[in-house]
């Protein structure tokens, strides 16, 4: 079924009794050309673009729970391309351009809201760093605008501009950045892939990867039996290390918990996405339902649990109140945790592995959601053509061994600092 205003009117007059399911519930076939492990945003986007751009439709996406149950359904929904490094900036700009046409592309309302992203700075050093980043963006044809304190005060009058430790001195604005409804992204890509013949196999946990005598992957053992394949692609986010070990891979990844929070609903007050550029890490926006959505740093210890600790809850709330004193009057309704696959340089991996027909999409750290369309497009290109997409050519698995890190934050080989 194609969604449109005419379809909406038609079903309204029929009492909304004839809507069809968004995707099929097929039984797994014995063999596929491509199996994608992970039914989150990146796995679904990869399947969608493999079918749409390369005509490969004999694909299975295997998800151990339900579609969208992982990080794509538990994040703070921010999209942006205000990066510095050559390995990241063109990639995330491609992703932002794909976001801008995504809803028309897969015929689903993902609630893309380009409300603008403002990164605040609080010292002369931070101002210089943001000016450098803004100049890098402009050199790549990406819009960026440096704001002084007066310009920020006009846009965000509710901030604490004279905080004793972190006075707001200005900010870097990317007007095209914003937010997207995370669940709708998963549903839209799932629906788009299904319409092109991709099998979405839910509640199908991969328990092993089977290889032949030549070392090639021949299929996966799952909770629903063995499924064969010609190519196997891994897109399992924080569980990349676990799945990688099934094939004998030791990946340069640590898994950490990242918590996020939602406040009670209030009238529209925060019109942008705002990041607090302190020595910590805080970001906030307002959802369409009125809740303030915000997050902070990773918890700092390795874990596969989708929950966090109270110390980081306190840290995040302290940062929020320091930036916006009015937050102290609101109640936090809920919190949740996502499992982040943190690399040594804070940048992702989209590459072939030492196993010829095994492909890896991992290491997204904080940036996984905003990368979803470009990640799927580039990973599909890699799987179909066995060569990297030009904007992902530096996101290689062996860059740590070769000494070609894409060190966006300049924090060195410590994943818990990225």
Plain-language structure description:
The protein has 418 residues and is an alpha/beta fold. 28% of the residues lie in helices and 26% in strands. The chain has ten helices and 18 strands. The protein has helices spanning 5-13, 41-54, 89-106, 124-139, 149-155, 182-195, 240-246, 310-323, 372-385, 399-402; strands at residues 31-37, 59-62, 78-79, 117-121, 145-148, 170-174, 178-179, 199-201, 206-211, 217-222, 225-234, 253-265, 273-276, 282-286, 291-302, 332-343, 349-352, 358-362. Strands 1, 2, 8, 9, 10, 11, 17 and 18 form an eight-stranded mixed β-sheet that branches. Strands 5-6-4-13-14-15-12-16 form an eight-stranded mixed β-sheet. A two-stranded antiparallel ribbon has the order 3-7. A hairpin with a 5-residue loop joins strand 13 (273-276) and strand 14 (282-286). Helix 3 crosses helix 9 (372-385). The protein is globular, with a radius of gyration of 21 Å.
